């Protein structure tokens, strides 16, 4: 049986209960509706202490800014664990049950405590520690959270207009971490590098003698070891007309 304690500013526990079933866990530690649809991502290694387990398993998790997810720390039903707690990278216990970063009793695991992130931010990165008292001693496991910068298009006009008979550059300014891979499309067809229009860095060079008119799309793709992201800037267009 596991006892979950709530602390306020590191002082005596405000609430203590022993969840026996998921329904009882919900009564003692209410779930928020915003958790529906949150993503779980797999990682790489096992837990540190043999009686503490992370779900998804592993000590390293990576997400993009704006992602929402949760990590569950649980103790075995026969471990005799008490005082299951999550700690932030600052070393402070996470005790709130609402907000962008909070803890909740696991709905499907009466011996688990979830660490929930909604709209994760870059400053949330760091090491999060799950601890419990087992056999009279503190047991710990942890994971390292890495947060990558999501793809954003900045300083790129919604409509870029060129005139027929003149050369023109279509801009696509992209920010992300890691750096993105950029590809260009015209009217839905991929533009291959080395052909006209010419692709130079993150700009598309249209030459009046060769390039057709149409709608041009900049697609950004970024990937790391455990996830990837792709976004389009579909409103970029070359609306060309006769020169004045």
List the helices and strands and how they pair.
Blueprint: E1 4-7, E2 13-17, H1 22-28, E3 52-55, E4 60-64, E5 69-75, E6 82-87, E7 101-105, E8 112-117, E9 126-134, E10 137-148, E11 152-153, E12 168-171, E13 174-175, E14 181-186, E15 189-191, E16 198-200, E17 203-206, E18 214-223, E19 228-233, E20 237-238
Parallel strand pairs: 4-10
Antiparallel strand pairs: 1-2, 3-5, 5-8, 6-9, 7-8, 9-10, 11-13, 12-17, 14-15, 14-18, 16-17, 18-19, 18-20
Keywords: Disulfide bond, Glycoprotein, Immunoglobulin domain, Membrane
Main location: membrane
Organism: Araneus ventricosus (Orbweaver spider)
Care to describe what's here?
The chain is mostly beta strands. It has two domains: 52-150, Immunoglobulin-like (Sandwich); 155-240, Immunoglobulins (Immunoglobulin-like). It has one helix at 22-28, and strands at residues 4-7, 13-17, 52-55, 60-64, 69-75, 82-87, 101-105, 112-117, 126-134, 137-148, 152-153, 168-171, 174-175, 181-186, 189-191, 198-200, 203-206, 214-223, 228-233, 237-238. Strands 14, 15, 18, 19 and 20 form a five-stranded antiparallel β-sheet that branches. Strands 3-5-8-7 form a four-stranded antiparallel β-sheet. The relative contact order is 0.16.
Overall SS class: mainly beta
How far the N terminus sits from the C terminus, by CA atoms, comes to: 81 Å
Query: Would you identify the regions where 5 or more consecutive residues have pLDDT less than 50?
Result: 1-47
- In what range is the share of β-strand residues? 35-45%
* CATH-assigned fold name of the largest domain: Immunoglobulin-like
Could you estimate the helical fraction of the residues in percent?
under 10%
* Overall mean confidence score, pLDDT: 75
The CATH architecture of the largest domain is Sandwich
Judging from the principal axes of the Cα atoms, what is the shape?
rod-shaped
What is the total number of structural domains?
A: 2
Question: What is the CATH superfamily label of the largest domain?
Answer: Immunoglobulins
For the largest beta-sheet, the strand count, sense and barrel status come to: 5 strands, antiparallel
Sketch the topology as an H/E string, one letter per element: EEHEEEEEEEEEEEEEEEEEE
CATH class of the largest domain: Mainly Beta
Q: How many DSSP H or I helices?
A: 1
Number of β-strand runs: 20
Radius of gyration: 25 Å
């Amino acid at each position: 049986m596991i006892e979950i304690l709530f602390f306020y500013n590191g002082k005596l526990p405000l609430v203590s209960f022993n969840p026996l079933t998921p329904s009882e866990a919900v009564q003692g530690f209410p779930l928020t509706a915003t958790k529906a649809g949150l993503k779980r991502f797999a990682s790489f290694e096992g837990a540190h202490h043999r009686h503490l387990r992370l779900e998804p398993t592993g000590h390293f998790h990576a997400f993009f800014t704006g992602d929402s997810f949760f990590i569950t720390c649980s103790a075995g039903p026969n471990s005799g664990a008490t005082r299951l707690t999550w700690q932030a990278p600052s070393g402070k216990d996470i005790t709130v049950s609402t907000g962008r970063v909070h803890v909740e009793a696991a709905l499907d695991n009466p011996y688990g405590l979830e660490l929930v992130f909604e709209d994760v931010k870059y400053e949330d990165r760091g090491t999060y520690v799950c601890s419990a008292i087992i056999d009279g001693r503190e047991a710990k496991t942890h994971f390292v959270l890495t947060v990558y910068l999501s793809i954003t298009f900045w300083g790129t006009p919604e409509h870029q207009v060129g005139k027929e008979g003149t050369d023109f550059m279509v801009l696509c300014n992209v920010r992300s971490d890691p750096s993105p891979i950029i590809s260009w499309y015209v009217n839905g067809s991929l533009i291959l590098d080395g052909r006209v229009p010419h692709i130079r860095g993150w700009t598309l060079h249209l030459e009046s003698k060769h390039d057709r008119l149409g709608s041009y799309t900049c697609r950004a793709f970024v990937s790391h070891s455990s996830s990837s992201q792709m976004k389009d800037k579909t409103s970029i267009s070359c609306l060309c007309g006769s020169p004045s």
